[in-house]
Amino acid sequence: MAARDRDLERLIPIQNPDINNNNIITNGGSNSSSESVSPVISSHHSSSEEAMSKVIRSWASKKFMSGCVILLPMAITFCITWWFISFVDGFFSPIYAHFGVNIFGLGFVTSISFIFLIGVFMSSWLGASVLGLGEWFIKKMPFVSYIYSASKQISAAISPDQSSNAFKEVAIIRHPRHGEYAFGFITSIVILRGSMGAEELCCVYVPTNHLYLGDIFLISSKDILRPNLSVREGIEIVISGGMSIPQILNTMDSHDVHATGLGKFAVPPV
């Protein structure tokens, strides 16, 4: 019997409690360490996703703004051009529609041709005589004469005839205080006489936001800086709010100013 009991003990495995306890402790430690590492990995993953999201949003925002910057001037140009064509086309389109001719743009071509023929006719001696007679008749009207005079001055400012331009030159003046400058246009020259003598003054028009809505200053010729800009370039700078101004401006010397013709206004003796 004793030998049989020993054989049974050899066949049946006996579980060691110390080994089981060690396995439990080891498994518990590995679980706790994996649980502590898991939040670190998840936080790092979320921060990477947030950074990638910011990069994508910034890239998309820049590309969208680039598209707006490119398309906005084109859209504004198209809308203004379309409105102008439709407006000019409306002068002669009803006449063509009355005869059953409905072709878009035909009235616009007719209007442009009509304006061109008016310019050719008014350049002749007969056209100038007719224009002078019409102006004489308009100036006799009390209220209409003021409107016509103002409109004619605006037209003279953009006239291709240099002798009739309202804006003679672009000027830079110290305004509103010393050390600060403003853009303006020389419109005329006046002579200021006083007890101390005579002084040549330039009538300078300083525009604000819109053309022909600004202030007029009488500035001494010695205080005016004349840059190497044409009147058209000066108007573009004003309309663009200073965004089209060159980075470097060169001013004209005094002998160059006299060579341009402004120096012909000699100060007469008192």
TrEMBL record:
InterPro entries: COV1-like. The chain crosses the membrane at residues 64-85, 105-133. It holds the Pfam family DUF502. It comes from the Eukaryota. Keywords: Membrane, Transmembrane, Transmembrane helix. One of its GO terms (cellular component) is Golgi apparatus. PANTHER family: COV-LIKE PROTEIN 1 (PTHR31876), PROTEIN LIKE COV 3 (PTHR31876:SF23). This is Protein LIKE COV 1-like.
